[in-house]
């Protein structure tokens, strides 16, 4: 416990120093942040909800996106400064010459695969034989919902199907849709399985206890890269102290998410609940096996390489991003001592 308290005090002290040297309220720096509405981006809502950004002289202007690829055009057009979402689209953006880098991780292994209906009740659903059995019984392939090609959900799903399950491609059909549409399709029985993250995983299992968890993120791709904090080169160049502060606050929020989940859940409910999802759901989602909060960007670098190689194989990535350029841990190292 003393070690934990010491760590928390060090993080708070580091953040306080940044705040003390940052902009005054009259000189507040706007930070235009695009985000994916998942628990893996929870640091953003903690930072905003706790008032840390305001105290540090930052004004967060948040814009929600239904998938990471949808944010690429916003990054390219210069309408975003920061990004909280899956790393896949950032690799695509970087490979296309868009000046954006990963400065911090937010979560790992957050993706899951769940099954419902006849497929979900199969004991062998997460096997090649299970997929084949479903086709023989139902006369059609397993319908799976996920996000668009190039996104982390789509990439990790295909990696799992091809390299872990080794299912015959003829036994499944993948349909791309947004996060909310995926949840609705799953609950309506329009699909047999889906890749989902928290809080959708908790919501779906509450509404249908027979929903079967087929695979956690680590079973799909070990140390699976999840949500990240990425910043554009233009923002970092124009506002280096603000950029450094964002990374420091991300680290501080990661600690709070892990050590005070109920406190953090209140902020996530406000940012993601839209007034229809209760606090108890977020309290469960934050401590779910699919919620693993990690701030160090280097934690996911090797697994990102594995994922990028697979995206090149799939053809959704035309050119590999230089991971030594894509990842920049200088701010993290400077503020996480």
Order of helices and strands: HEHHEHEHEEEHHEHEHEHEHEHHHHEHHH
* Terminal residue distance: 18 Å
What is the CATH topology descriptor of the largest domain? Answer: D-Maltodextrin-Binding Protein, domain 2
Strand content: 15-25%
| Quaternary structure | single chain
CATH superfamily of the largest domain: Periplasmic binding protein-like II
How many domains make up the coordinates?
A: 2
Low-confidence stretches: 19-25
Rg, nearest Å? 20 Å
Q: Report the principal-axis shape.
A: globular
Side-by-side strand order of the widest sheet? 2-1-3-11-4
CATH architecture of the largest domain: 3-Layer(aba) Sandwich
Report the major sheet.
Answer: 5 strands, mixed
CATH class of the largest domain: Alpha Beta
- What is the number of helices? 18
Q: Would you tell me the overall average pLDDT?
A: 90
Helix content: 40-55%
Query: How many distinct beta strands?
Result: 12
Structural class: alpha/beta
Q: What features would you describe in this structure?
A:
The chain has 337 residues and is an alpha/beta fold. The protein folds into 2 domains: 2-109 and 224-335, Periplasmic binding protein-like II (D-Maltodextrin-Binding Protein, domain 2), CATH 3.40.190; 112-220, D-Maltodextrin-Binding Protein, domain 2. Helices cover 50% and strands 17% of the residues. The protein is built from 18 helices and 12 strands. A 5-stranded mixed beta sheet has the order 2-1-3-11-4, sandwiched between helices. Helix 1 (2-20) runs antiparallel to helix 13 (240-259), helix 2 (42-49) packs across helix 13 and helix 2 (42-49) crosses helix 14 (261-272). 53% of the residues are buried. This is ABC transporter substrate-binding protein. Residues 1-25 form the signal peptide. Keywords: Signal.
């Amino acid at each position: 416990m003393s070690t934990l308290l010491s760590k928390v005090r060090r993080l708070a002290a580091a953040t306080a120093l940044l705040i003390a040297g940052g902009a005054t309220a009259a000189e507040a720096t706007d930070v235009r942040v695009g985000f994916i509405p998942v628990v893996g981006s929870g640091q953003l809502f903690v930072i905003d909800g706790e008032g840390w950004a305001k105290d540090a002289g930052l004004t967060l202007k948040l814009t929600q996106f239904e998938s990471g690829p949808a944010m690429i055009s916003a990054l390219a057009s210069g309408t975003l400064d920061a990004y909280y979402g899956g790393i896949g689209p950032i690799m695509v953006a970087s490979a296309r010459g868009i000046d954006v880098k990963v400065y911090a991780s937010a979560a790992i292994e957050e993706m899951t695969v769940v099954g419902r209906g006849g497929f979900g009740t199969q004991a062998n659903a997460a096997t090649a034989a299970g997929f084949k059995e479903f086709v023989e019984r139902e006369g059609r392939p397993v319908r799976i919902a996920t996000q668009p090609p190039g996104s982390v959900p789509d990439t990790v799903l295909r990696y799992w199907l091809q390299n872990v399950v080794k299912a015959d491609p003829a036994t499944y059909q993948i349909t791309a849709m947004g996060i909310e549409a995926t949840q609705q399709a799953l609950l309506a029985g329009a699909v047999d399985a889906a890749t989902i993250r928290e809080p959708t995983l908790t919501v779906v299992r509450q509404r249908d206890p027979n929903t079967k968890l087929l695979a956690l993120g680590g079973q799909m791709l070990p140390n699976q890269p999840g949500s990240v904090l990425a910043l554009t080169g233009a923002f970092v160049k124009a506002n280096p102290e603000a950029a450094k502060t964002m990374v420091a606050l991300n680290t501080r929020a990661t600690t709070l998410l892990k050590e005070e989940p109920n406190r953090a859940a209140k902020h996530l409910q406000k940012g993601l609940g839209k007034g229809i999802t209760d606090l108890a759901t977020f309290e469960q989602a934050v401590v779910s096996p699919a919620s693993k909060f990690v701030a160090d960007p280097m934690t996911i670098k090797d697994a990102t390489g594995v994922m990028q190689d697979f995206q090149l194989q799939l053809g959704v990535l035309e050119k590999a991003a230089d991971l030594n350029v894509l990842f920049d841990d200088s701010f993290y190292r400077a503020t996480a001592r």
